[in-house]
């Protein structure tokens, strides 16, 4: 099983990034997926959740209206579109297949700074 994130980087406040997470080794289309983030010195935070079919999503209050989670089951990939980024969005972002699977990616760094 692998979850491989990509798309992180350095962006100015107000900018956008799109994270991708490529999954392999399990039946991706059958399971919900999540994005988490962890800033230095803080606990890991659930950012967004999407059900297996992609028709329902949930977001942390801190990112509602700015971030969009989506998935392409044909490509075994989940995305996180991040718009109007703020310095407080700086964190390592992790892709997660929640219980009963409990799989995690290695994380990708997002830094929002001028």
Describe the structure.
By secondary structure, this protein is mainly β. Helix content is 0%, strand content 50%. The chain is built from no helices and eleven strands. Strands 2, 4, 5, 6, 9, 10 and 11 form a seven-stranded mixed β-sheet that branches. Strands 1-3-8-7 form a four-stranded antiparallel β-sheet, with no helix packed on it. A hairpin with a 6-residue loop joins strand 4 (33-38) and strand 5 (45-50). The protein is globular. The protein starts with a strand and ends with a strand. The model has no long low-confidence stretch (mean pLDDT 97).
Task: Describe the structure concisely.
The protein is built from no helices and eleven strands. The chain is mainly β.
